[in-house]
Amino acid sequence: MRAFARYDGFRLFLLWLLSFILYVAGFKTPVLGTLAMILALMTPFRSLRKLRYYRDEVVGGVISFRRAWAYVVFQFFYASLLFAFAQFIYFVAFDHGFFLEQIGKMFSDPATVQAMQQMGVGQTLTQAVAELNTMRPIDLVLNIMTSNLLIGLLIGLPIAFIAQRRLKVEG
Q: φ, ψ for residue 39 (rounded to 5)?
């Protein structure tokens, strides 16, 4: 199972990497940012498709909920490790503060600040942006990796529920 999850995790990493590259490029060309979001939103559908392939072609059409969930979690684990490594290289070698500067600009926009104040999170947003600017690349990457792993744990539940199959379907 882990070998297949590792391979599918690598392919998920490639999807995330392309999405990240387009997201960063989207700061200058907004249509690329939109494309990046679409690619990121493809993650659960892609994971479900790969899990169904694993279920039907590798383990004979039957997979328990727990095993299906573990498969998705392993996919996310391997993808998160590779993605963290790639992001670390980007932030250390190429970024030079551009990413965090753009995030800061986005959240300091008057319209964004006003909207956040209306939602009651204006002060929290200001503190979060200030804290982001003090983060080292490794801190930022570890935060993103932790978020990716948590998302994998949570999104794996409905994916595993959908893909589980206790009885082999003939035909």
A: -60, -40
The closest alpha carbon to 143, from 45, 151, 121, belongs to 151
Instruction: Check the CA dihedral 84-89-94-97 and report its sign.
Output: positive
- Cα of 57 vs its chain's centroid, Å: 26
DSSP tag of 109: S
In this structure, which amino acid lies at residue 126? T
Q: CA-to-CA distance for 38 and 28, rounded, in angstroms? A: 18
DSSP code, position 169: P
pTM above 0.85, yes or no: yes
86-136 pLDDT, tens digit per residue, is 999 999 999 988 998 888 888 777 887 788 788 877 677 778 777 887 889
CA distance 83 to 87: 6
Q: Which amino acid is at 27?
A: F
